[in-house]
Amino acid sequence: MLIRSSDSGRIHPVPSEITPREVFTGRRDLLRQVAAGAAGLTLASWAARDARAQMPRPGVLAALPATPSGLAGAQVIDKPTSYKDATTYNNFYEFGTDKSDPARLAHTLKTRPWSVEIDGLVKKPGRYGLEDLLKWSAMEERIYRLRCVEGWSMVIPWVGYSLSELIRRVEPQPSARYVEFYTQADRTTMPGLRSSIIDWPYVEGLRMDEAQHPLTLLAFGMYGEVLPNQNGAPLRLVVPWKYGFKSAKSLVRIRFVDKQPVSSWEKSAPQEYGFYSNVNPLVDHPRWSQANERRIGEDGLLAKRRKTLMFNGYEPQVGSLYAGMDLKKFF
Ligand SMILES: Nc1nc2c(c(=O)[nH]1)N[C@H]1C(S)=C(S)[C@@H](COP(=O)(O)O)O[C@H]1N2
Ligand SMILES: [Mo]
After folding, report:
1. Ligand 1 atom closest to Cα of 198?
2. Site to substitute for ligand 1 among 82, 89, 92, 231, most atoms within 8 A of C-beta
């Protein structure tokens, strides 16, 4: 299948694009009031206007204040997944392959001190401390869909900033064409490393333009707080138009390279996982249909599966990155 660029091939925006302006403004006011401790009444009247406001801070971890992002595509209007579901149904194979393993076992992950090694084809390589990275750009709240290749999806309010901000600071060399992401692999705290299902450490990669796309998020928090360990503390990637596994958790190294990286999933099952892994309802995984999905939290008897959207609904923003590419071949 050929994808045409979004400007020539597509005119109708997806619903997530057309969030009215007052929704943003109102939400910002609400956040200010919540911060001032006057949430009660306002929250109730707001809820009538926007389901997203039923999302007070869970009060579990440290607050990570953020401003609602105004970026197109960064305010999905679907109802967010509950904090409980988002933090107890996880894939984080370093802590086991069962969905409940990370919530049960990731408390051993030591997230301070933490630093990220930045190397490869870059003018300002170095080991950057988490406290510095937290200050490199203003924190934004972005509500994104995340779809797993296994056929389930969630809607999560992330906190972070565009990875492009980090990339700009470290100044890649012109020869850098891809970015490689390495995640924490510590045998003393991660029981899943005993299994050889993945060639540890977990590695993922993006093409430079994908990494620099403003929607590609370097996330430090969710639901207004710092990330829970099971969701990839203290910092992770969120690439909303790609299958969940591209969103690497607990990053320790970002490397700029000139050759297409081989991700851990490609290495372990090349016939099942390609480099791009864009959400695409027209290209099935050998074991799972990608045509539809189950929204976590909507699993009652009458719950219908939702149709999976091209590029997970972010086609207007990212379709042009793949103009002219055969996405059956580059899956
Ligand atoms: N380091 C690491 N990152 C990872 C994974 C993993 O096993 N290890 N699983 C991926 C997969 S398959 C998914 S669907 C998402 C899940 O993110 P969530 O638990 O925040 O929903 O994380 C991705 N990032
Ligand atoms: Mo996944």
Report:
1. 7
2. 92
Q: Is 320 in the pocket of ligand 1 (CB under 6 A)?
A: no
Averaged pLDDT score across all residues of the chain? 88
Query: Is the minimum distance from the CB of 247 to ligand 1 under 6 angstroms?
Result: yes
The predicted pLDDT at position 52 comes to 53
Pair 144, 76: CB distance under 8 Å:
yes
Task: Name the CATH architecture for the domain at 63-322.
Answer: Alpha-Beta Complex (3.90)
Counting ligands in written order, the one closest to the CA of 204 is: 1
Q: Using CA atoms, how far apart are residues 262 and 119, in angstroms rounded to an integer?
A: 17
Q: Where are the domains of the chain?
A: 16-54, 63-322
The answer, yes or no, to whether any atom of ligand 1 lies below 6 A from the CB of 202, is yes
- List, for residues 40-63, the tens digit of each pLDDT value: 434 433 433 454 555 678 999 999
Going from the Cα of 275 to the center of ligand 2, the distance in angstroms, rounded, reads: 14
Q: Ligand 1 pocket test: which of 247, 251, 290 has the largest number of ligand atoms within 8 Å of its C-beta? A: 247
Dihedral, 165, 134, 86, 251 alpha carbons, nearest 10: 70
Query: What does pTM read for this prediction?
Result: 0.86
